[in-house]
Amino acid sequence: MRLLAAPLLTAVLALSLAAEDSTKTKTKTNTVDPVTGEQVKTKTRVKSDADGDYKVDGKTQVKSDSGNTKSSVKIRGEADGDYKEKVKTSGPEGKTETKTKIDK
Length: 104
Description:
mainly beta; 1 helix; 6 strands
């Protein structure tokens, strides 16, 4: 879950700061955990429109002694309540993919 925290936090912050027109935000972070030595790279793109629609695309890569993990998150939301989320993760434990869709 720690892998997903950065892109989702960026999305929430970008949506709360949305202006009258559409806004686009790109974020890149490279961090190293001083205790475990894990290197975490995160790239996030957020686009929000004036009508309340938004898109979030995020990628996270973790390099550690126990193996590398990659995950990607795609979120689409609309003002009328429709919501789509797709999360792909691959690592030493294998690959997982989850999809969430809400239509209102």
